[in-house]
Structure formats: C-alpha cells, structure tokens
Amino acid sequence: MTNPTQRTDPIRPTDDEARSLAQTLMQSAGYAALATITATGAPLVTRVAFGLCPAGQPISLISSLAAHTQALQDTPAASLLVGEPGEKGDPLTHPRLSLMAQALFVDNQSPQHADLAAYYLRSHPKAKLYIGFADFSFVRFEISEGLLNGGFGKAFHLTPEDLSQPC
Predict the structure, then answer these.
(1) Do residues 143 and 126 lie in contact, with contact meaning Cβ atoms separated by under 8 Å?
(2) Residue 49 near residue 127, CB atoms below 8 Å
(3) Cβ contacts of residue 61 below 8 Å, gap of 6+?
C-alpha cells in the first residue's frame, strides 16, 4: 500500500527542450522580478530591467538609490524571476524561470561598463535617458542554479551550464 504522506519528486529530468525554453525566457525578458534580502533580514521583491550581457549572463542597470541595490550590496545573494503570463488562460500554466544568483557590480567608470552600455542599449533603447547618470551602474548575476516551471507538471532543475547560450 502507498503511503499517502509520501511525496513523489515533481522535478523531471532536464532535457534539451527544457534548456531551450529556459534560454528563450531569458532572451525574451525585458524585465524581471528581483528578490533580495534587506539589512534587517526581510525579503524584498522589486521589478528591474533585465538583459543579457554578450556572454549570456543576466544583467540589470540599477540605481544606487534603490532599496534593492542597497540590499544587494549588503547581501549579494539574489533570485530573479522571468517569464510573463500570456493574454489568455490560467497564468500558472505559462512558463517561468527562477534564477538563483550572486550579484556582481560593475563600476560605472570601468571599460566593462562602457562595453555593457553599448550592448545593453540595443535591447533597452529608453535607458539612454539615464544610463550615464552617476548613480546608475550594471549588476551582473552569476547564476548558481535555475528552476524552470514550464507549466503544470513540467518542472526542471537547471545548472549554470544548462542556461548558457550556445556560441
């Protein structure tokens, strides 16, 4: 007899279809929900601009005045959620990707910042209005793992290698 309290693992084996869906969600995202931990230990979730650097790692252009920036400076552990519900149907049936990462700041006076800015403006042209402000800099998110929910019954655990872009 089956134990009713025993749970089966809902995570499927990661396959090329899951990898492709996760990469597509990252490539098509213009913004994400960013989860951080504040200095008091409280969780904070905000919406941030989302992009990928030329190497395919998530980046965001953020202001040092924002609460989430302060939180990332204190505790660089973060999580990003990308993927939006479609216009029809149950929002929970649409795919979404959670990325666990460490935030790495790019100094806004560095050559790397200038390179990222040129690349970033291709997908975020409105950022031209504030990208040069002294309080704005890039943060790169070094992914440690990902969780893909491809819809009901389609859950996958992803490694950083699963999420890397093909060259």
Answers:
(1) no
(2) yes
(3) 49, 51, 120, 124, 127, 131, 136, 137, 138
Report residue 7 as tokens: 């749970």
What is the C-alpha to C-alpha distance for residues 19 and 158, in angstroms, rounded to an integer? 8
H or E element at residue 143 = strand 136-149
- Which 8-state DSSP code applies to residue 7? P
Tell me the pLDDT of the chain (167 aa) as tens digits: 556 666 666 788 889 999 999 999 999 999 999 999 999 999 999 999 999 999 889 999 999 999 999 999 999 999 999 998 877 877 777 899 999 999 999 988 889 999 999 999 999 999 999 999 999 999 999 999 999 998 777 899 999 999 986 53
Cα separation, 85 vs 94, in Å, equals: 5
* CA 55 – CA 122 distance, rounded (Å): 15
- Has this prediction a pTM greater than 0.85? yes
Q: Which residues contact 148 (CB under 8 A, 6 or more apart)?
A: 18, 21, 22, 25, 95, 96, 97, 98, 154, 155, 156, 158
